[in-house]
Write a structure and sequence with these properties.
alpha+beta, 4 helices, 40% helix, rod-shaped, 150 residues, 3-stranded antiparallel β-sheet, two-stranded antiparallel sheet, 2 domains
């Protein structure tokens, strides 16, 4: 077997792990041979992949790193709730996406109110609007001065 030397080194730490070449997809399957009172059999763990997405060459350090991360005996007690961790990640990403969408829509609306066809407008900024001062009716200005309003 082409990967027998890597498999022997991996089996020093994880004796149940075996590597299997899949000729159809030209990649290596990482398999677990489980033994026990309930039944014996093979379980597919994952298809090996390098960080750049290629399946070859198989690197011992990367494969061992994956196995150590997947080994639940290495997890701390607070990290064992993997489902909650995954769901929190989904909820956090969903909130971030909603906030980003809301911010984008708000900025587009504000842009539409502040500029129409690239021309600045006064809609959302009353400080740029001139203040209108009305005129008094004839005689009203005198009445307001006598009453002390002006």
């Amino acid at each position: 077997m082409f990967f027998s030397d890597i498999e022997k080194r991996i089996q020093q730490r994880y004796p149940m792990v075996h590597l299997q070449w899949d000729d159809k997809v030209k990649s290596v399957k990482v398999m677990e041979h489980h033994r026990g009172p309930v039944g014996n059999g093979w379980r597919f763990l994952w298809t090996y992949e390098n960080p750049d997405g290629t399946s070859l060459p198989v690197v011992y350090d990367r494969l061992l790193e994956w196995l150590i991360k997947a080994d639940t005996r290495n997890w701390h007690w607070q990290d064992k709730d993997l489902f909650r961790e995954i769901m929190n990640g989904h909820e956090r990403r969903e909130k971030e996406a909603k906030k980003e969408f809301r911010d984008r829509v708000e900025s587009m609306v504000l842009e539409d109110y502040n500029y129409i066809a690239g021309i600045p407008t006064f809609f959302m900024d009353p400080t740029t609007m001139p203040e209108w001062r009305g005129k008094y009716r004839p005689g009203q200005e005198e009445i307001l001065k006598r009453s002390g309003e002006q």
